[in-house]
Specification:
The chain is globular and about 40 Å long. The model has no long low-confidence stretch (mean pLDDT about 80). Helices cover about 30% and strands about 30% of the residues. It is built from 4 helices and 3 strands. The two termini are about 30 Å apart. It has one domain. Strands 1-2-3 form a 3-stranded antiparallel β-sheet. It is of the alpha+beta class.
Length: about 80
């Protein structure tokens, strides 16, 4: 259904962010740039790892070149 509205919960990073474990929370407290990244491997296994938050351009910045600043994503 091209052009239909999507459910905001599927695109909201707060609802799609994995809950950190106790050890991950300690590491993230010591370094605020750390984040938890969940990856699905080709064999179906899910792997968690620590990543760094980096700045990325949002879709509106890519198309119009406007906007206050980029967004932070876990890489």
């Amino acid at each position: 259904m091209l052009g239909s509205l999507s459910n905001p919960a599927t695109t909201d990073p707060r609802s799609n962010t994995p809950k950190p474990t106790f050890e991950e929370r300690i590491a993230m407290g010591l370094d605020p740039e750390l984040c938890v990244k969940v990856e699905r491997l080709p064999n179906g296994e899910i792997r968690r790892r620590m990543g760094k938050m980096v700045n990325a351009q949002s879709a509106i910045q890519n198309t119009h070149g406007t906007g206050p600043h980029g967004i932070k994503v876990c890489q």
